[in-house]
Amino acid sequence: RRDKRDVHGWVVLDKPVGMTSTYAVSVVKRLFSAKRAGHAGTLDPLASGCLPIALGEATKTVPFVMDGRKAYRFTAHWGEERDADGAVTATSPQRPTPEAIRDLLPRFTGTIEQVPPRFSAIKVEGERAYDLARAGEAVELASRPVEIHRLELVEMPDPDHAILEAECGKGTYVRALARDMGRLLGCLGYVSALRRTAVGPFAEDHLISLEQLSSLCHRAATGEGSFADALMPVETALDDIPALAVSQADAARLQRGQAVLLRGRDAPIFRGTVSVTASGQLVALAEVDRGELIPKRVFNLAGVRGTTGPRKGL
């Protein structure tokens, strides 16, 4: 067995169809021989695309990515509804026109009420909804508000299919979008292809396939490259958070869990959560409270780290 190493940064995996997010994390963790790993938002097995995987100290920044916007490209197949196992549950002979679809899109933009699919990971009295549904139990899920920032019809290659793009907030089910649109259009519908194109700061030009990643890691293991070439920096996840530079002395205090007094012009400017750096290196996540920096998450970035600039594919 290979020794585990300290590896810190983000791998933005282009997850293939048929693989669970949990298994994808285990593969990446094994390739890097990393001590710690986790993902920033489950991508279901039948979907492909952007799965940000945090290694080492990057796991402390996962919540900031999960709270960010997500973007999808999906194909709505009209004329049928299907369950999560692909079984047809209802059919319709009707088909929508592109004009009818475009006219409907404003009703699914902004804050809307959405009932999650029965085959979702939501817990009902301690049990996952999909486990109850597959066991044949009736699952009634309450609607909840979700935010759809953008929903566009890209093309309609034939009467049975429409390709759409969506940009949405946390907790949105794209499969429920196609279901609800199909019902209102009177034609029924389900998602026959789903690809996530962005999560928070991570987009398609950051993606790396498992094949590319495996090749790079094997080259690095033989001294022909660096593991850091496949990693994005830990702080990439904190792009939307104000950054504050401090002295090495203040950085040492924060890393010991001690508060630091904000001095001079910085004191009235910063509010809430900030990322703290010293000499260009991430030190901590801290809260600004009454003129003090109070450390909430402290980083120890000794070991293999992501490169200082975003990695744009391979």
Can you describe this structure in just a few lines?
By secondary structure, the protein is α+β, with helices and mostly antiparallel strands. The protein contains eight helices and 19 strands.
Secondary-structure topology with pairs:
Layout lengths: L6 E9 L5 H12 L4 E3 L8 E8 L6 H5 L3 E9 L1 E3 L5 E4 L6 H7 L5 E5 L8 E2 L2 E2 H6 L9 E15 L2 E8 L5 H12 L3 E11 L2 E2 L6 H12 L21 E3 L2 H8 L4 E2 L4 H4 L2 E7 L2 E9 L2 E7 L5 E2 L9
Please provide a written account of the structure:
- The chain has 314 residues and is an alpha+beta fold.
- It is 21% helix and 35% strand.
- The protein has 8 helices and 19 strands.
- Strands 1, 2, 3, 4, 7, 10, 11, 12, 13 and 19 form a 10-stranded mixed sheet that branches. The chain has a 5-stranded mixed sheet with strand order 14-16-17-18-15, with helices on one face. The protein has a two-stranded antiparallel ribbon with strand order 5-6.
- The longest helix is centred in the N-terminal third of the chain and has 12 residues, at 21-32.
- The chain is globular.
